[in-house]
């Protein structure tokens, strides 16, 4: 029995260490919006007019704006220098110099803007409270309400093609435009759930909402089918790196992941409990960021999946050390131990023979102890590889050989 309990503890520790890592935001204010213009460059926004910027894929964040007179619920990074953020009171702010300065657009009124999307520097859409759907074609200098929109709250709008955009809202409301917002077509969502999040990869799209609702389309958003999720919690956001691999997040610290197009959604462990997650963005199949309540920012380089780093001893080593892998040569799996003498930001990565990083095993804080890491090289050809441990001022690299 003691042996079983010990194994379970190790498995739980492995799960926690190797999934989502909490990163500092410097605030307890809620963070609502998140957007990336490239794999490394992105912005987040939230209460108190806070806007953060990252240039390393979401690992570290710099506060660029703060104003207690308003909050921001949505942001869109149009390119690495240009972004627009929206919120309350009918707040629209824009930057053209990577967030160094923000200027206000639009009028002030007691209304809520929740989401913003741009197809290019000039043409954009904003949605919000009770049928709010406004459009600009001059980079936000002026906005006009789209006529004939149903009087229901619209939670997210997103361009999913050159001129195609989708907006979703309460009571299963779904609208589509194919001419950049001039005209809108009502789409049957096959649900009455409140809908909150949209993600597309090519013609394959996903929408999430209340009661664990997940919808999928494979024809560009015209026909939707209801999927089975593993939660009854409200899902606020979804993000897919490709047609099959993506994550969804929501109330109660829920994180779900699928790698088979939503046929199965597996729950993942969050390092933060009892929190509402607001937005997720996956910049690749493995790299992503989640933002939410209490200033929460979570970061992953594994898609949130376990990567096989196992704490094997809580003994505090005298110094950093990277052990030789075993077996070596190997086919296709190997493992190695490493020692961490103090809590530190640890980067553990695999490189090919010419020095290109091909996989990140861990990037985040680890407590003092002795760890074992496993690497599965099934997807890589025979040859020489290197694995490197970097922690603070310490760096060590070892060589290993994969033979088929």
How would you characterize the overall build of this protein?
The chain has 404 residues and is mainly β. It folds into 2 domains: 20-300, Methylamine Dehydrogenase, Chain H; 309-402, Sandwich (Immunoglobulin-like). The chain is 4% helix and 47% strand. It has 1 helix and 36 strands. It has one helix at 2-18; strands at residues 21-23, 31-36, 42-46, 51-54, 62-65, 71-77, 83-88, 91-95, 103-105, 113-118, 124-128, 133-136, 144-145, 154-159, 165-169, 174-177, 185-186, 195-201, 204-209, 214-217, 225-227, 235-240, 246-250, 255-258, 266-267, 277-282, 288-292, 296-300, 309-313, 321-322, 333-340, 344-351, 357-366, 369-376, 383-391, 394-402. Strands 1-28-27-26 form a 4-stranded antiparallel beta sheet, with no helix packed on it. Strands 2-3-4-5 form a 4-stranded antiparallel beta sheet, with no helix packed on it. A 4-stranded antiparallel beta sheet has the order 6-7-8-9, with no helix packed on it. Strand 20 and strand 21 form a beta hairpin. The longest helix has 17 residues, at 2-18. The radius of gyration is 23 Å and the shape is globular. The two termini are 40 Å apart.
């Amino acid at each position: 029995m003691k042996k079983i309990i010990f194994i379970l503890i190790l498995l739980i520790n492995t799960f926690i260490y190797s999934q989502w890592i909490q990163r500092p935001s410097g605030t307890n204010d809620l963070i609502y919006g998140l957007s990336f213009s490239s794999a490394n460059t992105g912005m987040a926004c939230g209460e108190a007019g806070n806007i953060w910027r990252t240039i390393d894929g979401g690992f570290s964040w710099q506060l660029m704006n703060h104003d207690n007179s308003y909050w921001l619920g949505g942001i869109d990074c149009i390119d690495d220098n240009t972004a627009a953020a929206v919120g309350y009171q009918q707040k629209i702010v824009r930057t053209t110099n990577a967030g160094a300065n923000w200027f206000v657009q639009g009028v002030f009124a007691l209304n809520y803007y929740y989401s913003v999307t741009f197809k290019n520097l000039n043409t954009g859409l904003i949605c919000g409270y009770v049928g709010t759907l406004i459009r600009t074609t001059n980079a936000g200098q002026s906005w006009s309400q789209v006529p004939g929109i149903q009087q229901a709250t619209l939670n997210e709008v997103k361009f999913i093609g050159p001129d195609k955009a989708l907006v979703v809202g309460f009571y299963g409301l779904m609208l589509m435009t194919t001419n950049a917002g001039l005209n809108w077509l009502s789409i049957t969502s096959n649900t009455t759930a409140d809908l909150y999040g949209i993600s597309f990869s090519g013609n394959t799209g996903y929408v999430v909402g209340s009661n664990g609702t997940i919808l999928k389309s494979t024809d560009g958003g015209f026909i939707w089918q209801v999927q089975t999720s593993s939660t009854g919690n409200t899902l606020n956001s979804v993000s897919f790196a490709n047609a099959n691999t993506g994550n969804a997040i929501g109330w109660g610290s829920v994180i779900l992941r699928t790698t088979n197009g939503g046929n199965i959604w597996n729950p993942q462990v969050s390092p933060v409990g009892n929190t509402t997650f607001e937005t997720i963005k996956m910049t690749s199949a493995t790299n992503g960021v989640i933002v939410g309540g209490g200033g929460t920012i979570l970061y992953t380089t594994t898609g949130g999946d376990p990567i096989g780093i196992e704490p094997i001893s809580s003994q505090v080593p005298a110094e950093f050390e990277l052990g030789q892998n075993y077996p070596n040569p190997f086919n296709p799996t190997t493992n190695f131990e490493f020692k961490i003498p103090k809590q530190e930001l640890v980067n553990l990565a695999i490189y090919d023979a010419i020095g290109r990083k091909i996989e990140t095993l861990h990037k985040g804080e680890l407590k003092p102890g002795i760890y074992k890491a496993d690497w599965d090289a099934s997807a890589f050809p025979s040859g020489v590889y290197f694995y490197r441990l970097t922690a603070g001022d310490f760096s060590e690299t070892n060589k290993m050989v994969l033979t088929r």
